[in-house]
Sequence to fold (138 residues):
Amino acid sequence: MKEPNLQSASPYLRAIAERRLRDCEKELEQLRGALTNSEWNRGYLKALEGLLLTLKSNDGRYLYLQRLKMDDKTVRRLKEDFRKHSSSELHADYDRGYFAALTDYASTLEAVKPWLSQVQDAEVADDSGGEATGEAEA
Fold:
C-alpha cells in the first residue's frame, strides 16, 4: 500500500477510539506490513504509534489529546487544524503524513463519539456504587 487512507486505517483508529488495546496492536501490525517505506508513510505510522502509546499511558500530564475534554466542537476544531497541517506545503512529507493520521483519527472520533459512552460508563458506575471498567484497563 502506498499511502494509507481512512478506509485502510479505519479498523485501527476505531479500536483506538474505543480503547480496545488488543485489537489496536493487531491492526497496527497489519498496517506496518502494508505500508511502503516513504517519508509520508513513516510520519503516518509514527502518529498511529503515538496514539497507541497514549492509550497505554496512565499519565496524561504530558499527553495533549488525553487532557482535552472531547466533544463534537473540540473534535471538529482538531480535525480542521490537523487537516490544515497535513495539506500545508510548508511541512515536510513526514509531517504531512503525521498530521494526515491525526486528521483520520479525528474523523473516526467524529463518527464513534467515544465521549458519549464514557459518560454512560460513568453513570453506570455512579448507579452501582463502583467503578466502570473497560478493556483497556484490564
In short: The helical segments are 6-17, 21-34, 39-56, 64-67, 72-87, 93-112, 114-128.
